[in-house]
């Protein structure tokens, strides 16, 4: 009861010291109207009214400058960079490009769409891994579309080629999935791919947990890169919390009971009851039992 009254009057803007004094004088069971009257009688004012009552001091502004710009701060001044709160992004370039090309063409435009999507959100650390042999001219069995995008992303230090070479006419390719998972794990980032990396999960138990918790799947809808709003399922974090180092949990908002005062669930009701805020939420059946029990005790006392 004390905490609920403290929260109520704090929301109105009164100071905690004044509220504690009034509650000590009137008692913890005092009604809210009596507490409010006593606060007004003491001369206590809400903080918003006190700020309005204080005379505003004139601010000196230099000639040739605008007073409205004095309070502005440029990014990185007086505070932390918003990009520091976002997780690093490691993109499986082959998976994204083949997915955008309907598993028929290695579409480099799909990689560009994914990179642009994360850049618009403010991510600064973005790495895309693609096998080195994708720099070779396209062949009939492995077509490539918009290959110039790979060169542009490489100049921007976004694209990283995994090594490959030819030995006696045969191409020897390093396992690019291992690069992707290792870099994402070391930087505590997010893997963007529709691959589950089951072989790497069985290889390293730490990677298994990391892949299960940090794998971001996606879809392409009309040349639009779209990750899900719930990457880990309905009961998991939102996409914003999934991609940030410091997730923000929303405040729980109680939904009012649709039955109102006619509700018979009592303390078992999961909805909010305004009329039961300062009283025990007993069900109707429990209240009747309590009343009958009290009457029975009175009869027992009167019988002698």
Present the secondary structure layout.
Layout: H1 2-11, H2 16-26, H3 32-42, H4 47-53, E1 89-92, H5 93-100, E2 106-107, H6 108-121, E3 126-131, E4 144-145, H7 148-155, E5 159-162, E6 164-167, E7 170-173, H8 176-186, E8 190-192, H9 198-203, H10 205-214, E9 215-216, E10 219-220, E11 225-226, H11 239-242, H12 284-302
Write up this protein.
The chain is of the alpha/beta class and 304 residues long. Among the domains are: 46 residues; 162 residues, Rossmann fold (3-Layer(aba) Sandwich). The chain is built from 12 helices and 11 strands. Strand 10 and strand 11 form a beta hairpin. Helix 2 packs across helix 3 and helix 5 crosses helix 6. The longest helix has 19 residues. The radius of gyration is 32 Å and the shape is elongated. It starts with a helix and ends with a helix. About 6% of the residues have low confidence.
Task: Using brief descriptors, characterize the structure shown.
304 residues, alpha/beta, Rossmann fold, five-stranded parallel β-sheet, two-stranded parallel sheet, 12 helices, elongated, magnesium, endonuclease
The percent range for strand residues is: 5-15%
CATH A-level architecture of the domain at 82-243? 3-Layer(aba) Sandwich
Compute the separation of the termini in Å.
Answer: 39 Å
Mean pLDDT: 78
How large is the radius of gyration? Answer: 32 Å
Point out poorly predicted stretches.
61-79
Q: How would a textbook summarize the main sheet?
A: 5 strands, parallel
SS field, number of helical segments: 12
Strand tally: 11
Strand order of the largest sheet: 5-3-1-8-9
* Approximate helicity band: 25-40%
Class by helix and strand content?
Answer: alpha/beta
Which geometry do the CA atoms define? elongated
């Amino acid at each position: 009861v004390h905490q609920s009254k403290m929260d109520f009057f704090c929301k109105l803007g009164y100071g905690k010291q004044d509220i504690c004094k009034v509650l000590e004088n009137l008692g913890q069971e005092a009604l809210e109207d009596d507490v409010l009257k006593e606060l007004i009688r003491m001369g206590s004012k809400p903080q918003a009214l006190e700020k309005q009552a204080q005379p505003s001091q004139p601010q000196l502004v230099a000639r040739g400058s605008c007073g409205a710009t004095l309070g502005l701060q440029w990014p990185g001044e007086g505070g932390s960079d918003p990009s520091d709160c976002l997780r690093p992004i490691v993109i499986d370039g082959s998976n994204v490009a083949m997915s955008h090309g309907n598993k028929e063409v290695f579409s480099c435009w799909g990689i560009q769409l994914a990179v642009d999507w994360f850049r618009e959100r403010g991510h600064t650390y973005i790495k895309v891994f693609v096998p080195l042999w994708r720099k070779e001219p396209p062949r009939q069995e492995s077509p490539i579309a918009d290959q110039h995008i790979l060169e542009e992303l490489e100049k921007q230090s976004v694209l990283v080629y995994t090594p490959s070479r030819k030995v006696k006419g045969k191409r020897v390719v390093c396992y690019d999935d291992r690069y992707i998972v290792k870099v994402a794990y070391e930087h505590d980032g997010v893997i963007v791919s529709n691959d589950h990396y089951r072989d790497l999960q069985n290889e390293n138990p730490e990677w298994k947990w990391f892949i299960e918790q940090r794998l971001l799947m996606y879809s392409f809808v009309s040349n639009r890169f779209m990750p899900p709003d719930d990457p880990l399922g309905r009961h998991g974090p939102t996409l914003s919390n999934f991609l940030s180092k410091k997730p923000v949990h929303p405040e729980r908002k109680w939904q009012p009971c649709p039955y109102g005062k006619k509700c018979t669930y009592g303390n078992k009701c999961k909805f909010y009851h305004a009329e039961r805020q300062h009283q025990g939420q007993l069900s109707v059946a429990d209240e009747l039992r309590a009343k009958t029990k009290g009457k029975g005790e009175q009869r027992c006392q009167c019988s002698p």
